[in-house]
Every structure is written in C-alpha cells, then in structure tokens.
Amino acid sequence: MLTGLKVAVIGGDARQVELIKKLCEWDATLYLVSLEHLEGEFPGAQKVKLEEVPAEELDAIILPVPGTDEEGYMETHFADESPRLTKEWLKQVKSSCKIFTGISKDYLTSLCNELQLPLIPLFDRNDVAIYNSIPTVEGTIMMAIQNTDFTIHNSNVIIVGFGRTGKSLARSFHALGANVRASARKQEDLARIFEMGIEPIHTDSLSDKVKDCDILINTVPAPVINVKVLQNLPQTALIIDLASKPGGTDFRYAKKRGINAILAPGLPGIVAPDTAGKILASVISQLLLEKRGEGSS
Amino acid sequence: MLTGLKVAVIGGDARQVELIKKLCEWDATLYLVSLEHLEGEFPGAQKVKLEEVPAEELDAIILPVPGTDEEGYMETHFADESPRLTKEWLKQVKSSCKIFTGISKDYLTSLCNELQLPLIPLFDRNDVAIYNSIPTVEGTIMMAIQNTDFTIHNSNVIIVGFGRTGKSLARSFHALGANVRASARKQEDLARIFEMGIEPIHTDSLSDKVKDCDILINTVPAPVINVKVLQNLPQTALIIDLASKPGGTDFRYAKKRGINAILAPGLPGIVAPDTAGKILASVISQLLLEKRGEGSS
Amino acid sequence: MLTGLKVAVIGGDARQVELIKKLCEWDATLYLVSLEHLEGEFPGAQKVKLEEVPAEELDAIILPVPGTDEEGYMETHFADESPRLTKEWLKQVKSSCKIFTGISKDYLTSLCNELQLPLIPLFDRNDVAIYNSIPTVEGTIMMAIQNTDFTIHNSNVIIVGFGRTGKSLARSFHALGANVRASARKQEDLARIFEMGIEPIHTDSLSDKVKDCDILINTVPAPVINVKVLQNLPQTALIIDLASKPGGTDFRYAKKRGINAILAPGLPGIVAPDTAGKILASVISQLLLEKRGEGSS
Amino acid sequence: MLTGLKVAVIGGDARQVELIKKLCEWDATLYLVSLEHLEGEFPGAQKVKLEEVPAEELDAIILPVPGTDEEGYMETHFADESPRLTKEWLKQVKSSCKIFTGISKDYLTSLCNELQLPLIPLFDRNDVAIYNSIPTVEGTIMMAIQNTDFTIHNSNVIIVGFGRTGKSLARSFHALGANVRASARKQEDLARIFEMGIEPIHTDSLSDKVKDCDILINTVPAPVINVKVLQNLPQTALIIDLASKPGGTDFRYAKKRGINAILAPGLPGIVAPDTAGKILASVISQLLLEKRGEGSS
Ligand SMILES: NC(=O)c1ccc[n+]([C@@H]2O[C@H](COP(=O)([O-])OP(=O)(O)OC[C@H]3O[C@@H](n4cnc5c(N)ncnc54)[C@H](OP(=O)(O)O)[C@@H]3O)[C@@H](O)[C@H]2O)c1
Ligand SMILES: NC(=O)c1ccc[n+]([C@@H]2O[C@H](COP(=O)([O-])OP(=O)(O)OC[C@H]3O[C@@H](n4cnc5c(N)ncnc54)[C@H](OP(=O)(O)O)[C@@H]3O)[C@@H](O)[C@H]2O)c1
Ligand SMILES: NC(=O)c1ccc[n+]([C@@H]2O[C@H](COP(=O)([O-])OP(=O)(O)OC[C@H]3O[C@@H](n4cnc5c(N)ncnc54)[C@H](OP(=O)(O)O)[C@@H]3O)[C@@H](O)[C@H]2O)c1
Ligand SMILES: NC(=O)c1ccc[n+]([C@@H]2O[C@H](COP(=O)([O-])OP(=O)(O)OC[C@H]3O[C@@H](n4cnc5c(N)ncnc54)[C@H](OP(=O)(O)O)[C@@H]3O)[C@@H](O)[C@H]2O)c1
C-alpha cells in the first residue's frame, strides 16, 4: 500500500486515468493538477491548481507521457489551459521527490539536473519499452490492414530493426501468417531471428532484399530507409515508420516515387490508452513501493 | 489457358478487378457489362451493354459477389446504373453456360432452376469459405483494435462457432496473445479446439462463461447471443457479430444494456478487395479449366 | 456419478489404469478380469476371473484398445494368460450392455453383430481420434529427433494426409520451426493448410515435391509413398509412417534404396499411456453417463 | 574462399565432420590430427600425426568442443589415442594463429594467455549460444517425452531462467501446447515473457509456484532448484536440468524425495551433431573469412 504517500499528477491524456485509479486503490494522497474536466470518482484525490499543491511535501510528481516542451509547458486533455513546470515551482520539492515522465527532452532534463531531482523517463526502461511494444504492434497491424488492399497473411513483410519493438513485431506478423523477414546488425540478433523461424537479413543489405516487399515496417531511429532502399522497393509497397520523429525514412524521396510512407508515432496512446495507462501505473506503483521499502528499512 | 472461352462479367466491386486481370492473362474473351468506369488495360476484354453481349455464345457469366436482389438488380461500383438479370435475357444462353455468384438468394436461384442453368454460388464452397476467412479475420482484428481501449493481447476473447471462419479466428486471436475460448457444439470440434491449445466451451453453456469476456466474436448464424448471454456479459465488452444478416445477436437487448455490439458484414471486400478478388479469380479459373478439360476429352 | 453401474474391464495395458481410476472415482462397481498383477488401490473394484463376473448384470464391458484377435484372444500387460472373449460367454450379457474397444476387427465385429450388442470402437470417433492425435504427434516428434542427426527446426518436413492426425502434425512441426509442407486431396483441406501458413501440396503430385525433403511423415492408410515418390526422395531422408498396418510406404523399395523408413504404430500408448488412458476414460464415462441419463428418463 | 589458409583440426566428435566438409568446400588446406578413423573423402585434407603438422605455418587450430582437460588431453571419437596439447608444441605457432574451442577450462585458457595466442571459446559467443539453443530445445523435448507418461501438451511446464536457452525453450514448449511459466530475475525479461503470451514468475518466488508443476526445466547455472523448491514440487514431477555441471538442482535431496531429476549435458552433440557441427562450421568460416579480409587489406 502507498498510504501516506503524496503524489501530484499534472496534465496528461487518457493514459493518466488508469494511473490515477491505481494510485487511489493503493491509498496514495493525490493532487490532480490541470485535470479539472476528468470524470469519475477518485477517492483520496483532489483537483487543485498547481500553486495549491503542497510542493514541499510531495513524494512524487507524475508528468504527462511526452514530458514538457522546451518552455516547460505540458499537454493536458482534461483542462482548458496547458500547465507549465517552472524552476521556481520545482525548487520547492524535496530532493527525494521522484519526477516521472514518459520521455524527457532538454528543458526537463536540465531542470532536474540543476535541481538534483531524481528524474525517471519511463520509456527509457527496457521493461516499459517491451510492455509498450504490445499496443505498438497492434497499432501497426491496424494500420497495415487499413492501408492495403491485400491481407497481411501471405504478404511479404520486412521488419527493420530487432530491438524491443522489432522483436514483438516480428513475432506477431509471423503469427498472422505473413512471410516475415527481420533485419538486425548484431550477429546475436540474427541468430535469434533465425531461431524464431523468421528469415534474418542484415540491415546493411536491406536494399538488396526489398524487391518483393509488400509492407516495410521500420523501428530504427536512423536514416536506414534511404534512397537506395526506396529505389528497390515496389511502388505499391506500404511503409509504416515507427521510429521516433523524424523516423528512419527519406519521406521526401518516397513521396517522389509515389510510395505510401506513413510516420506513425504514439500508437499505444492511440489504440490502447487503457493498456498503456496500466503499464505506466504498474511500473510507477512498483517504483513507489520500492522507495517506500527503502525508506522504512 | 482459357483461349476461346467467352465470359461475361456483369457489375460488381473492387474484387472483380483481380478476376478480370486473371481471366485476361489466361486469354479468355471477355465482355465487361456495367463496368464502364473501370480503369486499366484489359487485353481481350471489351466494355459493352448487356444487350450487346452475344449471350448464346457465352461459356460463363460472372455476377457480382452478392448475386442479384429479389428483382434481379445487381450492384456495380463501376457504372452509373444497376444492371438487371432478366429471364428474357438469360433464356438465350446455352445450357452449359456456368453462372458464377458469391451468394444466391431466391430470385437468382429459382431463375437458374427454371432455366436449368448450372448456378455456382462460390461462397457455399468450403475452400472459398476458408480462403475468405483469412481477410475476414483481419477485418475482425482491425475492428477489435479500433473499438476498444485495451489490447487484444491478454484480453479475454470468446469466439462463438467453430466452423470455417471460427477456426481461423481462434487460431489468429490465440497467436496474438489473447486468452481465447472457442465455442462449438460438436464433440470433435471441442477436441480440435483443445488440441489447438485453446479452451473449449459448449455453445449451449455460453451464458455461464461470458462473465469476464472482453471481446465476443460471433460466427453462428442463429440467435445464440441471446438475452441470457447478454445479461452475463460485462457492459464494457465489445461484440463483433460476423454472421450473415441479421447476425446472431439480440442487438435490441444489447443496446438496452449499453453494450457495444457491431454487425460487420462483408469484411473481405472491405479490408482486402485484392485478396478477396484473387480468391474468386483462382477458383473460377480453375473451374473453367476443369470444364475445358472435360469438354476436350 | 455412475453409482450402481456394473462394468467389467478385461485385460489391456497401462492405458487401462487411468480408466479404472476414473470409474472408481465415479463410484461404478468394477470387475477387473485378467488384471491380477495390476498394482494400486481401486475402491469398489474386485479382481476376478472371467467366469466369476456376473455377466448378465453388466452395463458395460471394456476390452483392451486393440480389441480381440481373430480368435477372440485379448492382450493383457497385467496377467500371465491372455483372456478370450467367446460367444458362449458374451451370450449371457443383456442387450443394452455396451462393449467398448479401441478398434474392432472381424471377429469382434461379427460377434457383436450376431448377438446384437452395441459395440463402440472408440477410435472410430472423431473426437477420440483428435485427442489421440496429440500423443501421436509427440511420439512422432520424439522419433524424428531420435532418428536424425539434424534438428527438426529448419528442416524440410512433408506431412502426407491432412485428416485428424495430419492436422495436428502440421500445426506442431510448423510451430517447432520446420519448413512444413502438408498434402491433401480435397480443395478445402488445401485451403485450410494455406490458412495455417503452411505450404499445401496435392497428394497426387507428391513425387514432384519430395526432392529436398528431410523428414516425410505419412498418415494416409493407402499406398501413397510408392516407388515413384521414393525414387525422388533423398536417400538421407527419414520416413515415419503412422498409418495403420501395413502403412502407406513401399518398405521393400525404401529398403532397397537405403532409405530409413519406420512403421510406427501405437504411439499414444507408448509415449503417453496416462494421457491416452485419460482420453478413453473421459469418453467412456461420458457415454456411460449419457446412457444413464437416457435410462433414468 | 579460404584458399591458402592452413588449418589443423585435432580430435573431436561427429560435429567435426560438418566443419571439415565446409572448410574443404571453401578450399582451406587441412591437417586432420587424431582423426584417422574418420570416413569420407575430404579433398585438400590430409590425416597426419600432431608432430607432422607444420605448426609454424598454421592460421588456425580447431580443438574438440570441450577443449582440453586439465592436463591438455583432448577427446576424439575417431582415433584410438587421445591427443595432447602441450606448451612445447603450441610454442611453435605464430602469434596470429587462432585457437578455436567450444568451451575453455583453466589449462587451455592459461596456456593461450601465456603464449599470447588468440583463444576463441565459441560457446561464449551469444550467436553460437542462441544457435545451439535450437538443438538443446529439441533434446529437452525428446527427454520430456521419453521420461513422462503424459503429453507435453496441456501439462504444466516451468522453465527456470530466461537467457539464450530459456527463451528458446519457452517459445517451443508454449508452441507445443504446454501451460508454460518462465522464470527470470530482470524486469525486462519478465516483460518479454509476458509479451510472448507466457506467464512470468520471478526466480526468487519459484518455491511458491511449483505446486502443480509437471515438468521443471532448469537453465540457471546456480543452485536455484533447492530444498525449498523441491519440497513444494509434486513427487511425480520430472526435472530436466540443462545448466552446466553440476547443474542447478539439489540432486541429493531430489533423490531423497523420490523425484526424477536428470542432469542433461551436451544435448546438441547428442541429438543433432550435424546441425551442431554446421553451427560451428559457419561461425568459424566466417571468423576466418573476416581475418582474411583484415590480412589482405
Ligand atoms: N510509433 C510508436 O508508437 C512507437 C512505439 C514504441 C517505440 N517507438 C519508437 O521506435 C523506435 C524503436 O524503439 P525500440 O524500443 O524498439 O528501440 P530499441 O530497442 O533501441 O531498438 C532499436 C533498433 O534499431 C537498431 N538501430 C539503432 N540505430 C541503428 C543504426 N544506426 N543502424 C542500424 N540499426 C540501428 C538497433 O540495433 P542495435 O541493437 O544493434 O543498436 C535496434 O535493433 C524508437 O525510435 C522508439 O521511440 C515508437
Ligand atoms: N462478416 C463477414 O465478413 C463474413 C465473412 C465470412 C463469413 N461470414 C458469415 O459468418 C457465418 C459463419 O461462416 P462460416 O463460413 O464459418 O460458416 P460455417 O462453417 O457453417 O460455421 C458456422 C458455425 O456455426 C455453428 N452453428 C450453426 N448453427 C448453429 C446453431 N443453431 N447453434 C449453434 N451453433 C450453430 C456451426 O456448428 P455446426 O458445425 O455444429 O453446425 C459452425 O460452428 C456465416 O453466416 C457467414 O455468412 C461473414
Ligand atoms: N501410429 C500411430 O500411433 C497412430 C495414431 C493415430 C492414428 N494412426 C493411424 O494413422 C492413420 C490416419 O489417422 P487419422 O485419424 O488422421 O485418419 P483420417 O482422419 O481418416 O485421415 C486420413 C487422411 O488420409 C487421406 N487418405 C485416405 N485415403 C487416401 C487415399 N487413397 N489417397 C489419398 N489420401 C487418402 C484422407 O484424405 P480424405 O479426407 O480426402 O479422405 C485424410 O487426409 C490411420 O491409419 C490411423 O489408424 C496411427
Ligand atoms: N545441457 C545442454 O545441452 C546445454 C546446452 C546449452 C547450454 N547449456 C547450459 O545451460 C545454461 C544456460 O545457458 P544459456 O546460454 O541460456 O545461458 P545464459 O544466456 O547466460 O542464461 C542463464 C540464465 O540464468 C540466469 N541466472 C544466472 N545466474 C543466476 C542466479 N544466480 N540466480 C538466478 N538466475 C540466474 C540468468 O539471469 P540473468 O540474465 O538475470 O543473469 C539467465 O536467465 C548454461 O549453464 C549452459 O552451459 C546446456
């Protein structure tokens, strides 16, 4: 249980709902900031303005998944105005107060560094990235079905990159009956691809292998779907690029060749906000519990 | 090859395109009726009016997938006016001319009976139904992703009916990591479900098993998702009913209980017209080739 | 419950043990014949000689899985002498007494016909055949591993026949990462094979497809692995023939060509007698229960 | 091609055969030592005594998979006498000569250290360990089938450890229809297990989870299958311990409780020497080719 722990939740989207529910269940004291339009009963939670939060007593602050922008503003789907995280406000919190975010860009990172506050960009964690790969895969499947006139089954699919998301994509598209090839650059990844019954290709030799590709899914956050690859890709192929902005595809050239290439960020929050919220809720509660364990020892 | 064979294709949707391409490749002589807006080059094919077709010389007539309505009118996505199949016109064709349709309702069935013409409702064939189950499954997956806030993975899915479509659904949802239960009424089907690593339930005891169901997918063309089942289903569950109209769900009662129940007909033509067209093209060409084989022997 | 029901179990192998356990649990009255060396406590069961059984009171007689030989003798692993089922003895039982066996050859079949007794050859039932396919598959996997120097994974496996056993084999070898092709002669079976992500081949064209085959598994009880097929099979290939004696392989010619061809009957009883016994126990109890239901109505 | 490269292969088992074949194909010059009973034609290879090998000209030396014992002796299945690797002999080779072995114990490791020779224990490589996990899995499946009376399908299997071998085991037993749980201690491994549709358990809480376990497979080279775990394991369970000697099981206590616990080392060489040999052949040739690339530049 998290009884007695004080947590501020600031802004965010549908994913925050699951998180708030869970923290309530575990009996934390919650301050909901910039969430005034949020519906539902949350025992132990109160909707307040940022300046009303007892900042110096907080044990944790939970920011929206994308963190803050470069001026400190944060997204919220449940309030009219974007809240802002300022140095002045953050200076008040105690040094053990954990700051949770999905990802962290410069503003947030340097602010926490300066104030020596423990910042936890959850999406950097392998476990979170793997859990998140599940809704990501389903979002990708949905897009593949929506954007083609043929079935995934029996089509030629190439998954580029065999990291946390690539592994899940490869497994699922294979299970749906596609002819999957997966690319990697490490020998051990190529070995694992082979073990999974999938055809391994080296990311460097991608351009030689795409000639009969129907659907190309990229997870590599580097310009690997370049002119050379695009030149060999059939014009009718579909590209779904999952890598974080700006993706790994030369979109300009793809467009020139008339290839349908889609940059598809943030799929978990779009196709399965409940599941995505539960993933965050589960990891955050666990980390708060551990903290608790440490504190009491 | 189908050289010399004369075939009329009347109306239809995107699925006809693959069919026409294939028949051209195999060198049939084609009369395209009510398809004047169809784009593309089809060597050996000519766009004509129904009355211009040399009816008495035809070896085969290919109708739209849904056949005709009860007055003989047929759907077309590539013409301004719906063509009509009349007894007068059909009387002209020779008795060996095969009439292909997806499904056949009363008007078409009795017309062909009366004129003693060989009518082939392709969707009645097991092989066609099984091939078609593949795009049907993908359409169902797409709908499940679009209409829920959680992932298919780790959700409780019940597939009702274990026929040609049910088998494919069970396999695919299981492969995506759902906790699948599948229902049937034959002992041998329950045995096969078990062999596939899926939990079997008897269709008759459905109402006892739906309490924790997240997604219920029906394939039984009979009222099995009745009040008793719906009463036990969580209000948050999603129902996707694939059975031919009017489906197997008591939609009125589902609505009353606030359960989201969707009747989803014609998925293959919607999500994968290319694949769906190729399935028909392949079976029709094979049947024409066999006919040919017989004729020449 | 089966309280009051009188059942004789005559001879048999390890599979009978599970059956006897289950019937005891369900409170049947049991006469164990030619099972004197059977160890364990079976409440409600007594070990007796055939002539001591109150034949006229029996509700069911359970024979060994292979039934009787052509002189009426039955296998037993738990007695020194083979019991014999004679017309004289069987004449005593009442006409509603069910005779259970795995398979039935001429002697048994004509005896029951003559006496108008309900004979139930369990292996003829589709559900039993499907449940039994599970241990059959595992026995086949074991043999494939034992009799080759290479892995099943990534080897070229052909499954001949896509009936109750063939379907399970295809699924499992595919899941283990083999390159599986499966043969059938019905269009609908070829369609289902394709849907499963496996390469379909027509049984008639087998000889054209075996050139790179590493492991050939036959389930067709007809001479399909003939000289023509064997001529094209690599000499290093392994044949596992599961079809009932004499199998579907020309063993003489296989030997001549130096191909290792193994006839492998009775795998369920060998690799998983517990499971195989439970399958029979479950179906027999269910049938007895139904009978009971009928009787009491 | 490896033309001009001089390689000595000393002793070994069936796995060496594939290796030698491959090196011959690639046109290396081979000295086969303590392999006099090896059958087959190997163009470019000569069978010689250790002292006849032109040691100072060698580019690579390939030892048996287990390396040497603590006195330098090496296994051979194809000669009457075990060859010995001495410091005197090894002193002659040039400093760029690569020494390949499967695993390396103290004697070999310190000898190569002392002489500053590049020693390559192939089984330490992730790619080799993953490729090897494939025959290891099949050996484990074979043992599970041989040593139980029930099917893997529908049995409760626990895989302990989720490293290179554990991942492959989990995937394959799940695919065969077992109810698999897999244990790990890293959050990211638990996440991946969940993503694969398998139930994750923390290795530390193993003792709470084994109560209904039918088959327990250990891959952790540390004493994790301890008294506490064994006390909770059903007496009828089977333990297959794959971890390198002495395994992770308290075998003494298991025996006391009457639990069948099997230490099963070296499965790849036993069940699939061909495949195991090809894995080594492929990695060694690749490393020699790379070397070559470097040398020529
Ligand atoms: N669209 C969405 O909804 C969504 C959801 C989740 C993740 N993402 C994004 O998807 C991307 C992948 O996420 P992840 O969790 O799978 O990351 P990851 O585990 O780090 O995997 C990245 C993969 O890319 C490869 N890679 C990186 N740089 C490369 C280069 N220069 N050349 C070739 N290969 C390279 C990596 O190979 P090595 O292992 O050899 O480095 C690895 O296989 C990220 O950009 C992430 O932000 C998007
Ligand atoms: N929405 C779409 O896009 C789409 C696509 C394909 C098919 N469909 C429709 O989906 C339905 C199923 O197609 P299918 O090809 O799978 O048909 P199918 O092979 O005939 O399977 C029908 C299943 O329903 C069961 N069933 C039939 N009547 C029943 C009853 N009164 N009570 C309990 N179970 C009953 C059957 O059991 P038994 O075997 O025991 O009779 C069988 O398991 C059809 O209506 C078809 O038109 C829709
Ligand atoms: N060794 C063991 O331990 C073991 C265990 C279980 C079963 N069995 C034996 O294995 C065999 C198969 O059992 P099952 O339950 O799978 O039987 P099944 O369901 O009847 O399947 C038999 C298959 O063989 C095909 N077939 C039959 N005659 C054929 C012919 N003349 N030409 C081409 N194909 C033909 C059938 O095709 P159609 O459907 O088109 O007729 C079907 O695909 C039987 O002999 C059975 O006794 C052995
Ligand atoms: N019998 C055979 O034929 C055969 C074949 C191949 C391999 N093996 C043997 O099998 C074993 C596993 O091989 P592998 O390639 O899978 O190794 P691996 O990739 O290193 O995996 C070892 C696993 O054990 C876990 N582990 C290690 N020490 C632990 C501890 N003290 N407590 C809890 N977990 C611990 C690791 O967890 P972390 O990742 O958290 O450290 C990892 O999950 C080795 O001993 C290897 O020699 C045997």
Molecular structure report:
Four copies of one chain form a homotetramer. With 297 residues, chain A is α/β, with parallel strands linked by helices. Chain A has two domains: 6-124 and 273-296, NAD(P)-binding Rossmann-like Domain (Rossmann fold, 3-Layer(aba) Sandwich); 128-265, 3-Layer(aba) Sandwich (Rossmann fold). The first copy, chain A, has ten helices and twelve strands. The first copy, chain A, is elongated and about 60 Å long. The model of chain A has no long low-confidence stretch (mean pLDDT 95). Chains in contact: A-B, A-C, A-D, B-C, B-D, C-D. The C-D interface holds C 14, 134-135, 137-139, 141-142, 145-146, 148-154, 172, 175-177, 271-275 and D 14, 134-135, 137-139, 141-142, 145-146, 148-154, 172, 175-177, 271-275. One NADP nicotinamide-adenine-dinucleotide phosphate (NAP) binds next to α4, α5 and α10 of chain D.
> Quick one: biggest sheet of chain A?
6 strands, parallel
- Annotation field: number of helices of chain A: 10
Q: In which range does the helix fraction of chain A lie?
A: 25-40%
SSE topology string of chain A: EHEEEHEHEHEHEHEEHEHEHH
Q: What is the number of E strands of chain A?
A: 12
Give the structure's gist in a few sentences.
Four copies of one chain form a homotetramer. By secondary structure, the first copy, chain A, is of the alpha/beta class.
